[in-house]
Amino acid sequence: MNVLVTGGAGFIGSHLCDRLLARGAQVWCVDNMHLGRRRNIAHLESRPDFHFFELDVLQREALDSLFAKAGFDAVFHMAANSDIAAGVADSRLDLTLNHLTTLTVLEAMRAHGVKRLFFASTSAVFGENDALLGEDAGPLQPISFYGASKLAAEAYVSVFAHTFGVSAVVLRFPNVIGERATHGVIYDFLAKLRKDASRLQVLGDGNQAKPYLYVGDLIDAMLAAWDKSKDPLSVYHAAGIETTTVREIAEIVVAAAGRPDTCIAYTGGDRGWAGDVPRFRYDISRLQSLGWQPRHHSTDAVRFAVERILANGF
Amino acid sequence: MNVLVTGGAGFIGSHLCDRLLARGAQVWCVDNMHLGRRRNIAHLESRPDFHFFELDVLQREALDSLFAKAGFDAVFHMAANSDIAAGVADSRLDLTLNHLTTLTVLEAMRAHGVKRLFFASTSAVFGENDALLGEDAGPLQPISFYGASKLAAEAYVSVFAHTFGVSAVVLRFPNVIGERATHGVIYDFLAKLRKDASRLQVLGDGNQAKPYLYVGDLIDAMLAAWDKSKDPLSVYHAAGIETTTVREIAEIVVAAAGRPDTCIAYTGGDRGWAGDVPRFRYDISRLQSLGWQPRHHSTDAVRFAVERILANGF
């Protein structure tokens, strides 16, 4: 299988490249290096079955050349701005990096007759919703430009799937953690402790509660969904079992990387920043019915990710 | 009340201007004249409380000048490409005219501190879904770029409502009919009969079935939703009671405007064109609970609209 991975030098994209190569795929990895890191793929660059191109998928001509040259069987579209807080400051950043990249990839797939797409979406499409969220649940009322841009991208994936013959798997990621992350709660806490180990400032009151998933479990979920989906459009939710509060994460990080006297201080308020969804819960039974199961419960995933990061670096 | 109506020279927008003026509002009407018609607002142009500007809302500087000059209390954002079939041919047309216009209006509202928005959305955000569709229903899987672009716009309205203090009313229009329409099934049928009254060709098998709403009833629904909504984001569905098939519409139009020997020919297939949703049903109880009721059942609305158009022209 000849596979394009957009955003392949990023956090999740590079783990995906590892696993696709292990399954015997030819992997064509493109990244504009906005959040991608060359070191995430350094161990792959000498392989004959791995092809890296520094390329922005918004550059349609360059993308077309690559499509023409490689003859892709499938596209895993991972390229995105995944930093929700950064996106809140600029109403066009996520529009461009999440929605327009997706539309450009879809247009290129249509032009070159590529029929299979994996699209990385997010729980943020729901906004604040306390229900146990199944894949068909509504309403979809995002509160961040990140969530809105991913919902916009999902909408366009739906059109290409239902009207233009693309077969698409959409997986709405939860909070994904692990080595190679470029931001996120664990990353932030470790960076803060590195600067000042005496004190960890936590945004919000610490009661935000979400299901965290270790990146290895996420890639398992992606590949299970990929292998077993046949509909024009298949949507899945993946998450660790139960939820973990930001307070618990702070305590785990401090226990692993702080000092005995590190104090944890909360800025207060029910969320970390404008656009932060303070809590959500996922119904993951659809993906479980395909045989997928997260190896780590949410809080175990946090502990495991912290251990891996401290052992191997980001 | 000082109100901006974008797309105010269009089919629904011009009817809205009439009604807002009748309620005593100062109406600032802008239109890029893509689908707008000067004749739709000709009867208003001499009024001192009506201000028309030919302006594309994507021109942010011109829009900013108008916001600064007028000091709007509210915006009714009606500007859009409403021709679904036209949008299917070009994946960027609806993105630009529906989604980016909405984002630009939202950004201008935020910049100028305007707090109240009415957004014209559509049943097409749902794609093909046979359920009785309430406002909170999912999944949202559009099959046309029109539906996708309106869903994308809804997503951004949600962000500005939940995170940036805009109070928004979203009404998802059904098939709206009446005088001043620029396209749509009745318009098409009448235009075809005008060319050749001996024969009416109907796209699809005629069994597409949707709830039609007369434009006057729609404006009633808009104003009921507008007057009685207090949440940051209020979403409503409006439609005529029951549904009407395309076959019934063809027969009504031929009876009113054809000849005794006019034959009706069907091209076949379950839909009029790629991206056409062949049937849907709306749960309108949320809007009914505000006291709104359509004056015409769906098929009566079709008859009434045909009569009005034949009497008054488009």
What is this entry, summarized?
With about 325 residues, chain A is of the alpha/beta class. Helix content of chain A is about 40%, strand content about 20%. Chain A folds into 2 domains: about 1-175 and about 210-235, NAD(P)-binding Rossmann-like Domain (Rossmann fold, 3-Layer(aba) Sandwich); about 185-210 and about 245-280 and about 295-310, UDP-galactose 4-epimerase, domain 1, CATH 3.90.25.
Description:
Two copies of one chain form a homodimer. Chain A has 314 residues and is of the alpha/beta class. Chain A has two domains: 2-176 and 212-237, NAD(P)-binding Rossmann-like Domain (Rossmann fold); 183-210 and 243-279 and 297-312, UDP-galactose 4-epimerase, domain 1, CATH 3.90.25. Chain A is built from eleven helices and 15 strands. Chain A has helices at residues 11-22, 38-41, 60-70, 84-88, 93-112, 145-163, 185-195, 215-228, 246-257, 285-288, 298-312, and strands at residues 2-6, 26-31, 50-54, 74-77, 116-122, 132-133, 167-173, 175-177, 199-202, 209-210, 212-214, 233-237, 244-245, 263-266, 281-282. Chain A has a seven-stranded parallel beta sheet with strand order 3-2-1-4-5-7-12, with helices on both faces. Chain A has a two-stranded parallel sheet with strand order 6-15. Chain A has a two-stranded parallel sheet with strand order 8-11. In chain A, strand 1, helix 1 and strand 2 form a beta-alpha-beta unit. In chain A, helix 3 runs parallel beside helix 5, helix 5 (93-112) packs parallel to helix 6 (145-163) and helix 9 (246-257) packs parallel to helix 11 (298-312). The longest helix of chain A is centred in the N-terminal third of the chain and has 20 residues, at 93-112. The A-B interface holds A 88, 91-92, 95, 99, 103, 106-107, 125, 127-128, 135-145, 147-149, 151-152, 155-156, 158-159, 161-163, 233, 235, 274-275 and B 88, 91-92, 95, 99, 103, 106-107, 125, 127-128, 135-145, 147-149, 151-152, 155-156, 158-159, 161-163, 233, 235, 274-275.
